[in-house]
Amino acid sequence: MFRQLRKTLVAALITTVIAGQAAPVFADAADSLPDIGTTAASTLSIAQENQMGDFYIRQLRASAPLINDPLLNQYINQLGMRLVNHANSVRTPFFFHLINNDEINAFAFFGGHVVLHSALFRYADNESQLASVMAHEISHVTQRHLARAMEDQKRSAPLTWVGALGSILLAMANPQAGMAALTGTLAGTRQGMISFTQQNEQEADRIGIQVLQRAGFDPQAMPTFLDKLLDQARYSSRPPEILLTHPLPENRLADTRNRANQMRPVVVQSSEDFYMAKVRVLGMYNAGKNQLTSDLLDELAKGNLRQQRAAQYGRALLAMQNNNHAQARQLLQPLLSAQPDNPWYLDLSTDIDLGQKKARDAIARLRAAKALRNNPVLQINLANACLQGDQPGSAVTLLNRYTFNYPDDTNGWDLLAQAQAALNNRDQELAARAELLALQGQLDQAITTLSSASSLVKTGSLQQQRYDARIDQLRRLQQRFRQYQKS
Is residue 330 included in any domain, yes or no? Predict the structure, then answer.
């Protein structure tokens, strides 16, 4: 498996301005609640929201501890799209991200971007509870709550919303300064923002619970998860971060519980992927704290077959994390033999092979996988195995196709740069690194790097024309983004 963990940032500030947390419901009617007196269109068009979302996610990639784990990203995006497919009023594409943060929280922002904190996997007892958080965030996006908040601020205090956006960016570079700037910017209109946010939360609850049930999850999971958060707040000097950024008055919880009680009772089993993802997050992430305890693994081992497999996978994962590759292989082998095409097992087996300097074994196993052609997780694993196994040419072939199909995955560009460097293709190495810089919002550096690549190839060649055309594209993107940058 190939994973890459980015640097650190306090994403909680973004959550404060970009409200969101979870909820669920089923109903016959479409998701068409009152518009709270505005269409939001006079402030932002959908195209502008998408553009701003593109800008902000690039900033997050550069500064936030996003978890660039192909397996986990595939899981949360598949789960998220299952929910989106049952939502109404979807005007934007959706993208789901996981951030390495041990505080329970989630937030959504422009362009259909939904960010989950890794701590959600620790506190969610089942897949329906995790899905309830995501359904709530999806509803914030479909109801355009951030655009509404900006329009409300624009009417009551012109330029306030502009300052708020600038403060978000400042917080990415300097959390303390960003928080101070945001506090000053919103001080005069704070009460109105709080009231508006509470309305947003209730609307997202009501629509989210409909999405949750239509997608086949248990609607009772939403009030159950909120109850769990309140219990934690009662016995703690500091409430969970999610309750600080997502107000939870008594009437909101009561309304959600009442709606869930009116829905058809349903028994929903969590998928095996949920348990695998939970084990993986607890064993490898959560801000560097290994929370995959023997007690948890023992509890899973007493459960159904899906949970038993996750427990065995978790033990193999911990052994690999402790560099005990022989034990990890011994624990994993029965699982892999029973399900030779399971991407969770193939990914871990690849890590074990590479840890034991057996890259050729990993390459052979991955090439034999039936799902290789359609599974990007296996494709990126194979490219990494080829690179580690001194086959950079094969890695380049795989990665050229991979980066074409998944141009927003930083893992692909990072590996491609390494593979081109191994082949001494300096211009193509620089071009790949430029794409990585652009995805992280560092457009000046990306343009400079691409200019260096262009200078290394024959003047007037097709390759130089390609590099120069890409430079022009990045300059136009830079011009569009300039309005969102803090002066």
Answer: no
- Cβ atoms of 127 and 271 within 8 Å: the answer is yes
103 annotated ligand-binding residue? no
Query: Would 321 be classed as within a structural domain?
Result: no
Which of 229, 261, 293 terminates a domain? The answer is: 261
**How many structural domains compose the chain?**
2
Q: Is 205 a catalytic residue?
A: yes
The domain boundary, picked from 227, 261, 295, lies at: 261
| DSSP H helical ranges for 290-355 | 294-301, 305-321, 325-338, 343-355
Please report whether residue 157 resides in a domain.
yes
pTM: 0.84
The amino acid at residue 11 is A
What residues make up the domain containing 147?
4-261
Annotation-wise, does 325 bind a ligand?
no
With DSSP H G I counted as helix, E B as strand and the rest as coil, what are the percentages for the chain, rounded to 5? Answer: 65, 5, 30
Residue 299 lies in a domain: no
DSSP letter, residue 270: P
**Whether residue 137 lies in the annotated active site:** yes
Round to whole Å and give the CA distance between 356 and 359: 8
pLDDT in tens, the chain (487 residues): 654 433 333 333 333 333 333 333 333 344 554 444 345 555 678 888 888 889 889 988 888 888 999 999 999 999 999 999 999 988 889 999 999 988 888 888 888 999 999 999 999 999 999 999 999 999 988 888 776 666 665 555 444 554 555 454 344 333 344 434 444 443 444 444 444 467 778 888 899 999 999 999 999 999 999 888 777 656 555 555 555 555 555 677 888 899 999 999 899 999 999 999 999 999 999 655 668 889 999 999 999 999 999 999 999 999 999 999 999 999 999 999 999 999 999 999 999 999 999 999 999 999 999 999 999 999 999 999 999 999 999 999 999 999 999 999 999 999 999 999 999 999 999 999 999 999 999 999 999 999 999 999 999 999 999 999 999 999 999 999 988 775 4
Say which of 137, 241, 351, 409 is annotated catalytic. 137
Q: Would you say 140 is a known binding-site residue?
A: yes
Q: What are phi and psi of 7, to 5 degrees?
A: -70, -170
Options 69, 203, 205, 273, the catalytic residue: 205
